[in-house]
């Protein structure tokens, strides 16, 4: 936790905040070993960042005097269409996506997504939000990515992706004889990027994504785990 | 497992192999649900890659007819000096490092590495090798990175790093008012790259690394987890 992310409801007036989230209090006590008088980097969910001084730290409550005067870092102008990863990977990928600054994430079905993955409790809105907040607290950001869950591939791709892709560079990462993934784009270039499941998209899915404007690109001979591929692709696209 | 990585001792003559590794057999049976006659992508540790056909698959043994005719993908010409991550992260980072193609990894001490991390059984040579093999089997590579364990920061940096850095571009990733990390290098550019622990290098460590030829570079405002930073930095450096 490199930033203590407060909810707007934690703010008491313009310069005071009260932390009551058990996870955050546990972290302050056990990891930060914080004490009264300590300064912490703070932010408000979907708002500004700044610094706060601990004026009271108890087991179930902490009070801070806060100054909020800095904008959060820019988001990446990316809509990421990601085949739903297995539950354990999902949690880490949500953190990765939030910490890298993705604007919008669509968790999508694919032939190679096991049906059981859709039953995981980690897809519940609170569980998703928890991982996203961890990612923001890691990266020092305050703005949550939008997350959308799409358990049906074909209607989503046919009916919704065309509007998403409009005015963006549409890319689908897929091994094969395709152009290399572009690199060194600037933050004005909006991207729609599709990343498949472990085992990859099936050819039908690549064709469908291509039909709605996503161009297949490859990343080289190495096949990366989803989480590694997400970080590597985003870092490459915006390496400029 | 996108590639079944055989040990040279698994080969019986030029075109036969016998798999007896319980982990690999379990994977063939339970994940691949392989059957006699199936073709698999295979490779030999530190050797060639190719294809193999399963001619016999039993609980404790599998026999393949193999053709080994392809070189493994090029390694990244990178020596990565990595502050020892916490044990759980260490295992994943070893996989990431192997799957991204790093040539050499040095696990190094730092002020912010907890002493207990050095006691983990995951640092035993067999445990390290297991994670590296998983990374190679993920990425379809056969060449293990060299791994070196250095529990003393100062003597290693003073006595050994100068020779490592020679004829390479030396970089230390560190947040702050530093030049941006370079990008788009080609595979002829050798790199020595130092990545700190969660919490970062302390200023003394940055100074010491700078004194032996590693130039501090930053990656932007976002602070990434070690595993994500490794993937993002390598993808950025060799994005060309």
UniProtKB/TrEMBL annotation, chains A, B:
It holds the Pfam family Methyltrans_RNA. It catalyses: uridine(1498) in 16S rRNA + S-adenosyl-L-methionine = N(3)-methyluridine(1498) in 16S rRNA + S-adenosyl-L-homocysteine + H(+). It is an enzyme of class 2 (transferase). Residues 75-236 form the Ribosomal RNA small subunit methyltransferase E methyltransferase domain. It is found in: Cytoplasm. One of its GO terms (biological process) is rRNA base methylation. GO terms for cellular component: cytoplasm. Keywords: Cytoplasm, Methyltransferase, rRNA processing, S-adenosyl-L-methionine, Transferase. GO terms for molecular function: rRNA (uridine-N3-)-methyltransferase activity. The keyword Repressor does not apply. Its EC number is 2.1.1.193. The keyword Kinase does not apply. It comes from the Bacteria. PANTHER family: 16S RRNA (URACIL(1498)-N(3))-METHYLTRANSFERASE (PTHR30027:SF3), RIBOSOMAL RNA SMALL SUBUNIT METHYLTRANSFERASE E (PTHR30027). Specifically methylates the N3 position of the uracil ring of uridine 1498 (m3U1498) in 16S rRNA. Acts on the fully assembled 30S ribosomal subunit. Belongs to the RNA methyltransferase RsmE family. This is Ribosomal RNA small subunit methyltransferase E.
């Amino acid at each position: 936790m490199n930033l203590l992310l407060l909810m707007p409801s934690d703010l008491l007036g313009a310069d005071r905040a009260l932390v009551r989230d058990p996870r955050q209090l546990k972290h302050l006590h056990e990891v930060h070993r914080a004490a009264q008088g300590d300064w912490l980097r703070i932010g408000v969910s979907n708002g500004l960042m700044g610094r706060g001084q601990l004026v009271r730290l108890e087991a179930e409550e902490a009070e801070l005097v806060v100054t909020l005067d800095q904008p959060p870092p820019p988001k990446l102008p990316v809509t990421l269409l990601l085949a739903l990863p297995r539950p354990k990977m999902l949690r880490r990928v949500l953190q990765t996506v939030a910490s890298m600054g993705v604007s919008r994430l669509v968790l999508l079905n694919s032939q190679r997504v096991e049906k059981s993955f859709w039953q995981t409790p980690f897809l519940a809105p609170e569980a998703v939000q928890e991982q996203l907040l961890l990612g923001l607290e890691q990266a020092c950001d305050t703005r949550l990515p939008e997350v959308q869950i799409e358990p049906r591939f074909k209607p989503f791709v046919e009916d919704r992706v065309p509007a998403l892709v409009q005015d963006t560079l549409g890319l689908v990462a897929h091994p094969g004889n395709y152009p290399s993934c572009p690199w060194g784009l600037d933050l004005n270039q909006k991207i729609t990027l599709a990343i498949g499941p472990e085992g990859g998209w099936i050819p039908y899915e690549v064709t469908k994504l291509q039909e709605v404007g996503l161009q297949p690109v490859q990343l080289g001979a190495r096949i990366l785990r989803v989480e590694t591929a997400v970080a590597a692709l985003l870092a490459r696209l915006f390496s400029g």
